[in-house]
Amino acid sequence: MTISIEKPMFEEVSAFQKKSENNTGDIRMANEHDEAFLAPEMNAFGRQFRDYDAESERQKGVEEFYRLQHINQTVDFVKKMRAEYGKLDKMVMSIWECCELLNEVVDESDPDLDEPQIQHLLQSAEAIRKDYPNEDWLHLTALIHDLGKVITLPQFGGLPQWATVGDTFPVGCAFDESNVHHKYFLENPDFHNQAYNTKSGIYTEECGLNNVMMSWGHDDYMYLVVKENGSTLPSAGQFIIRYHSFYPLHTAGEYTHLMNEEDKENLKWLHVFNKYDLYSKSKVHVDIEKVKPYYMSLIRKYFPENLRW
Ligand SMILES: O[C@H]1[C@H](O)[C@@H](O)[C@H](O)[C@@H](O)[C@H]1O
Ligand SMILES: [Fe+2]
Ligand SMILES: [Fe+2]
Asked: Where is substrate annotated to bind (predicted)?
């Protein structure tokens, strides 16, 4: 199904200023009188969003995270993970149970967020709901997009952070320089493998992202969960879940030679989504009990009661 976009995809950055006054570091509850979502200029730490070069303690941890991620995500590793997690034999539970479980996950790759993960899910979902009130599938997509991070918990195999979070990129072809902290790819064995280090590598131009192996993490895992459990979430929603961390594509505009026509359509919605995923990260908490009935109704509409994880 193709869903057309009637709203402007991006607001001017100047319009974002007003909201930044809210980002003072104090936690307050959002209420229904808040105006439509305006992306702030600064994150909750008073820095630019996605600033991977700032000098700070937090930044050192993030850089170390990317060093390990870039060294270890290889074609062989991704194949192994896909086979293992494709079995979906780790757990049986509902979507909401997983939302609650996610609170136990800490994301070491994220320079902009140190709130409980369930707040990030609800903050992004509520922000997108205000601006796109009729696209309920988009609200639900936002709610579940990061649930795959549970693979770092012991009961899901306890994968290291570098195999769970962070930006994603294709393996099996050259690592583009737009990847943050690109220099660490030099220590990845695939970097020196001639079958894997050309622009298209093992792929052909316009082969479609579905035929491309992405670095393993919460995006691809959650996509598998959605697909294999027979969710009726539209293809644009499934695409968003699968590629929302693929910043080298959706923000830097690289790797587009691997896309087919369907990918190009879906990418429009990913651009919409990305603004809410990134800029809704704030200290303004959503009242979970108040919004829960609405999201439960969406879960019932698009998912079976229990899912295999
Ligand atoms: O640090 C963040 C975080 O892990 C997000 O969940 C992921 O989607 C981003 O791409 C990543 O950079
Ligand atoms: Fe994510
Ligand atoms: Fe997110």
From this structure: 50, 107-109, 149, 166-167, 244-245
Mutational test site, ligand 1, from 66, 106, 107, 112, max ligand atoms within 8 Å of CB: 107
178-202 pLDDT, tens digit per residue, is 999 999 999 999 999 999 999 999 9
Give the three-class secondary structure for 81.
helix
Residue 11: count other Cβ atoms within 10 Å of its Cβ.
15
Residues in binding site: 50, 107-109, 120, 145-146, 149, 166-167, 218, 244-245, 277
Decide if the complex's ipTM is over 0.85.
yes
Helix (H) / strand (E) containing 276: helix 261-279
CA of residue 112 to ligand 1 center, whole Å: 10
Distance CA 129, CA 83 (A): 35
Please give the Cα distance from 95 to 130 (Å, whole number).
Answer: 22
Predicted model pTM: 0.90
Rounded to the nearest whole angstrom, what is the distance from the C-alpha of residue 245 to the centroid of ligand 1? Answer: 6
Question: Do 209 and 238 form a contact (C-beta atoms < 8 A)?
Answer: no
Task: Give which of 85, 230, 256 is closest to 238, Cα–Cα.
Answer: 230
- Asked whether the beta carbons of 95 and 307 are under 8 A apart, the reply is yes
